[in-house]
Amino acid sequence: MSEKTNALGAYLRARRELVTPQQAGIPDLGVRRVPGLRREEVAMLAGISPDYYLRLERGRNRNPSVQVLEAIARVLHLDEEHFTHLLTLVQEGSRKRKRRPRRETPPVSMLKLLDSLVQPAFIEDRYFDIVASNSLARALSPALAAGGNQLRDMFLDPAEQALYPDWESVTECFIANLHQAVGNDVDDPRFIELTGELSLASAHFRRLWARYEVRSQRGTPLRFNHPQVGELTLNRERMRINGTDGLMLVIYHPDAGSTDADKLALLASAGLPTTNPARKPTLEQNKT
């Protein structure tokens, strides 16, 4: 069974390899072929048989009890978001979803709201595809034009990477959110296409993806190093758009009266270019 169809096993393996024997409170004996706990150690600490745990990782048992999952979560040090994701992976009924459209169309009223906002704003789907954006968002980053993909640009475009001084932590956040948004719908064609391309093109993506961190994106400050106005910090807010299948309205806004607000106003009034045809990420730039 492949990892595409055995999401539960892939998740358990990834999280098991992040827990050291010291963290689990057991002796570190013998040579370990992979980092983290062995399967039999997880089984022992969770109070289940090694054979039962092995069947879970190999996808031969997809209906463990909540009590078993709670015990495994305790051993693997899963927080609430990671445990919720674990529960999602064993809910087989949730895999039977209708085929999603290649790109969902946001409500007309939301597009009108988007154009009326005086802050950078855009609409994204669960894969971080840009569905629509306003002019100030495109002035902040040409990659925020409709049709782009934030995740792809974040990993494959050096110009986009330079825009974020905290690029490492930003990419970690994006990957953790993608894991959560997709859940166990791992046979979704768009998901396969995107993660397949990035896995081949970026070693950094492969490392983060293998860790299987899961968490939602929350309102948080983001630092930018803009080529025209320099460094500025904007607060990111994400709001779900009702009546859609996972579309989000994202708004970047500065603290009132701050120098960041002044810089954003300068960016808005300067008539800076909103597109840059030369910015085309390539696979060769990131095969390191």
Describe it.
This protein has 288 residues and is of the alpha+beta class. The chain has two domains: 7-95, lambda repressor-like DNA-binding domains (434 Repressor (Amino-terminal Domain)), CATH 1.10.260; 108-286, Beta-Lactamase (2-Layer Sandwich), CATH 3.30.450.180. It is built from 14 helices and five strands. It has a five-stranded antiparallel β-sheet. A hairpin with a 3-residue loop joins strand 3 (220-226) and strand 4 (230-240). It is elongated, with a radius of gyration of 21 Å. The relative contact order is 0.12. Mean pLDDT is 85; it is low at 272-288.
Quick recap:
The protein is of the alpha+beta class and 288 residues long. The protein has two domains: 89 residues, 434 Repressor (Amino-terminal Domain), CATH 1.10.260.40; 179 residues, Beta-Lactamase (2-Layer Sandwich). A hairpin with a 5-residue loop joins strand 1 and strand 2.
